[in-house]
Amino acid sequence: MYAARERSGEDRDYTTCPVCSQMINGSPEELNEHVELCLNRVSTSLVAVIILTMAAVEHGDNVNKQGLLM
Ligand SMILES: [Zn+2]
Q: Could you tell me the distance, in angstroms and rounded to a whole number, from the CA of residue 35 to the centre of ligand 1?
């Protein structure tokens, strides 16, 4: 379940949802979709922070500040 490397060459197949703390397997689009659904259940004041967090996780060590701005 928590295997860090199910696919060779990719070490970010999963992400912990910052909203529900659930392990999510899938593409960045799927992760965003999941997070959006979770965000519907929380205060919209957290949306920006969480989206920025997800973006940082997806971009990993190559974070582009401009890329984080939506
Ligand atoms: Zn979630």
A: 5
